[in-house]
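Sequence of Electron transfer flavoprotein subunit alpha/FixB family protein (candidate division WOR-3 bacterium).
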Amino acid sequence: MSCIMVLAEHRQGNLRDITFELLALARNLAEPMKLKVNCLLLGKDNEALAQNLTNFADEVTSVTAEILANFNSEIYRKVITRIAKEHKPSLILIGHTAFGIDLAPGLAYELNLPLITDCIEVLHENNKLVMTRQVFSGKLNARMRFKTESGVLTIRAGTFKPTAPQREASIERSEMNRKGTIVESALGGLSPELLTGYASNFLGYEEAPTTGIDITKADIIVAIGRGIKEQKNLPIVEELAKTIGGELACTRPVIDAGWLPKDRQVGSSGKTVKPKLYIALGISGAFQHISGMKQAQTIVAVNKDPNAPIFSVAHYGIVGDLLKIVPTLSEKIKEIGLK
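Predicted 3D structure, token representation.
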């Protein structure tokens, strides 16, 4: 076992945030395990991305080919399998994203390795890795271990905070200003002919319609869930957001109902936000939503259910009907001139 391998995720020439989160986790685990961090990058034009990744990994394995320009799980799985068999990593880290959910099961099967998905914590305890994932819709945390010496993990986005580049964060003085190396690999030793004839093809990216507002940059967010009940009640929360200078956001059910555009969604299938203030109105607190907002500095929750999971992450909570509480809150804020 030689390394912890991180699969870099990128889109249209930009590395995704999850890549740096995985590299931070890998670095934390690699030190007590005395392993190196290897970042595997597949793509068409890798030079700039690979150079960036050397700030965070000991080694960047770069596989460059036209056929790898866009993600295709069948092709990526074939290439990654070959490279993983050469490196024999102790652990393979993949983001629990659309990319990872599609890729990880088949990759684990090809490598004959166990797979634990959607991990929210990975610890090194008594020379063993202990993974935590949520079960029963986030009501319980399950701690798991591999029975084998190595395995594959998918990690929930937003769970781990990216750290400084290793040349800045290294403890050893001799390590300061050290960057990782780049190793070029030609399709993982596979000929292009072996990477054709698959059932799936990349067609293109279709961006969701946007309102021109980026909620990830908002200092204050007012978010709504099923508790809003009907679309006609939206003006109530819109008034609160306007009063405190915040942006309106929501959970997936509100998007599915067509009440707000997709770019307003917070959660694992939406956006991850880190505002100074997050007001959750009528949101029960499914883990998919919590994963996208739990890093807010201050969280205020309003829900009729005193046992709603959202209260477990909220700093302040109000048990009650948002349709009665929010109008009163807006009026009081206007009275004292708070904004």
